[in-house]
């Protein structure tokens, strides 16, 4: 499938606008662990994912990470081009969680098209609103949910993403997603294990009782 099949409002652009997009975008590949965008000063451009998985996170002054949102096939990353958003700056880092293929749309090109195309502007506003909703959901989780509930939610989400109850993931990576410390996550996982909810092994977590996790996450 081509870019035209992935871009949400392609059929609502004029032929000239479509040609501008096709002539300006580039196809890229990123290996797992590659940093694609680093802070507001890095106006990379918009990323439209063909296949793979990206993670957007913020970094505290102490070096702790917390995931804001993740992106999958057909998702578009807007904040990697935050320079086109007036008066909004985001110190967000975006990395490839898996080997990823994507299209890069230059920021200036997209900004020019926004002034010409009402459908594209509407889509961009909807996308920005969805990302802000992700951020607000995260704030609510951090403020009002205990870590055991957040951890349960994360494990269930990870199992859904990987379509497996056997998760090849380290305690350090989980801590980075949740904005916690590895030692805290390890203690919590050992508690889950003693309760028969998960089984821990080197570099792997097996969900033994997803129903208990769901009950914990929603309690």
Biggest sheet, open or closed, and with what strands and sense? 4 strands, antiparallel
Strand coverage percent: 15-25%
Q: What pattern of helices and strands is seen along the backbone? A: HHEEEEEEEEHHHEHHEEH
The side-by-side strand order for the widest beta sheet comes to 1-8-3-6
Mean pLDDT across the residues is 92
Shape: elongated
What portion of residues is helical?
Answer: 40-55%
Structural class by sheet pairing and helices: alpha+beta
* Tally of strands: 11
Kindly, what is the distance between the CA atoms of the first and last residues, rounded to a whole number of angstroms? 43 Å
Radius of gyration: 19 Å
What does this structure look like?
The structure is a single chain. The protein is α+β, with helices and mostly antiparallel strands. Helix content is 44%, strand content 23%. It has helices at residues 3-6, 15-24, 107-116, 118-144, 147-162, 171-178, 182-194, 210-218, and strands at 26-30, 35-38, 46-51, 54-59, 65-71, 76-77, 93-96, 100-105, 166-167, 198-201, 204-207. The strands form three sheets. It has a four-stranded antiparallel β-sheet with strand order 1-8-3-6. It starts with a helix and ends with a helix.
Briefly summarize what is shown.
The protein contains 8 helices and 11 strands. The protein has helices spanning 3-6, 15-24, 107-116, 118-144, 147-162, 171-178, 182-194, 210-218; strands at residues 26-30, 35-38, 46-51, 54-59, 65-71, 76-77, 93-96, 100-105, 166-167, 198-201, 204-207.
């Amino acid at each position: 499938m081509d870019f035209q099949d992935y871009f949400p409002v392609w059929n609502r652009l004029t032929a000239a606008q479509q040609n501008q997009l096709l002539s300006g975008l580039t196809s890229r590949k990123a290996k797992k662990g590659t940093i694609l965008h680093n802070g507001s000063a890095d106006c990379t451009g918009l990323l439209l994912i063909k296949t793979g998985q990206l993670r957007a996170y913020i970094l505290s002054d102490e070096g702790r990470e917390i995931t804001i949102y993740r992106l999958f096939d057909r998702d578009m990353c807007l904040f990697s081009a935050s320079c086109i958003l007036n008066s909004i700056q985001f110190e967000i880092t975006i990395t490839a969680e898996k080997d990823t293929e994507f299209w890069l749309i230059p920021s200036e090109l997209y900004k020019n098209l926004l002034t010409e195309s009402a459908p594209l502007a509407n889509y961009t506003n909807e996308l920005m609103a969805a990302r802000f909703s992700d951020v607000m959901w995260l704030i609510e989780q951090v403020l009002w949910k205990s870590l055991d509930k957040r951890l349960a939610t994360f494990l269930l989400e990870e199992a859904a993403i990987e379509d497996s109850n056997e998760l090849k993931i380290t305690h350090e990576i989980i801590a980075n997603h949740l904005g916690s410390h590895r030692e805290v996550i390890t203690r919590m996982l050992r508690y889950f294990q003693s309760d028969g909810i998960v089984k821990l092994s080197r570099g792997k977590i097996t969900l033994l009782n997803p129903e208990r996790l769901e009950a914990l996450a929603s309690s």
